[in-house]
């Protein structure tokens, strides 16, 4: 039976609804055991990846729900996520279905036990995240691989291989991250090519790979080639126009549609700092797609309301379904 695993229980894919597939809800990057790697970007609490005020997060999720948002993927992994219980409570109180994420973020948050355990032992820990859950029985619904540099190596590579093997046993998808400041090192502008290489080595199917942050340094031919392989293409820093103008995002999405890849596109905003989220601090919030980007997508991308529904409902449902 096809299911999507949320923090409040399993649902049928058709129950998911409108879903932004790359957000943060409950996180504190300072928790990482190797946090010293990121020390130079952790000096301003309002501009650091910290969401630790439950009441304010509930307000933001309710605003998202009122605009039409019905689901969200919190891509914060265990080693800088404060707890799943609060995430579950936020979901129940807001009405927004939340899919939590297992696996690993970048090296600063990779636990040191990864260095000493075998890939099989790490895989078993990942299987428990998705199949058994935490002490409250709350389970994640997909995995993640975060890469800090322009190549996959060290504990990040070890964690990725374990995730690839866990996917084969669970049918989950894997979402991805590459540190934006290092993009100039990445051939093709996305780590997706290197992630796909590891998937092939491990025998993991490409349709379980969500290539994230593609709108930080896009190459349309690379994105199209990844979609040809079966990967999902995720524009997930929407609203952050220091990376890319919204009009350019819309034109890239139009070109992917023209190349036959509308069913592979996912969207998100990667809200992870208080100044990005809270309106009283000048943030755009989770509601930015409704309030601004869909208008740009229609005007500059020629994307219809029906096609937006496909991107925001049908595509996430397929990406997040556990494929046994």
Key phrases:
two-stranded antiparallel ribbon; alpha/beta; 324 residues; TIM Barrel
Note down, in words, how this protein is organized.
It is a single chain. This protein is an alpha/beta fold and 324 residues long. The protein has one domain (18-320): TIM Barrel (Alpha-Beta Barrel), CATH 3.20.20.140. Helices cover 38% and strands 15% of the residues. It has helices spanning 54-67, 84-94, 119-131, 154-170, 192-202, 220-229, 246-258, 274-277, 288-301, 305-320, and strands at residues 4-6, 9-11, 19-23, 27-28, 50-51, 71-74, 97-104, 142-147, 174-178, 209-211, 232-235, 265-267. The strands form three sheets. Strands 3-6-7-8-9-10-11-12 form an eight-stranded parallel beta sheet, sandwiched between helices. Strands 1-2 form a two-stranded antiparallel ribbon. Strand 6 (71-74), helix 2 and strand 7 (97-104) form a beta-alpha-beta unit. It is globular and about 50 Å long.
Shape: globular
What is the CA-CA span between the terminal residues?
Answer: 9 Å
Supply the CATH class.
Alpha Beta
**Uncertain segments of ≥5 residues (pLDDT<50)?**
none
CATH superfamily: Metal-dependent hydrolases
Order of helices and strands: EEEEEHEHEHEHEHEHEHEHHH
Q: How many beta-strand runs?
A: 12
Mean pLDDT: 94
How many strands, which pairing sense, and closed or not: the largest β-sheet? Answer: 8 strands, parallel
Helix content: 25-40%
| CATH architectural arrangement | Alpha-Beta Barrel
Which structural class do the helices and strands define?
alpha/beta
* Cross-sheet strand order for the largest sheet: 3-6-7-8-9-10-11-12
Strand content: 5-15%
Radius of gyration: 18 Å
CATH topology: TIM Barrel
Count of helical stretches = 10
Number of domains: 1
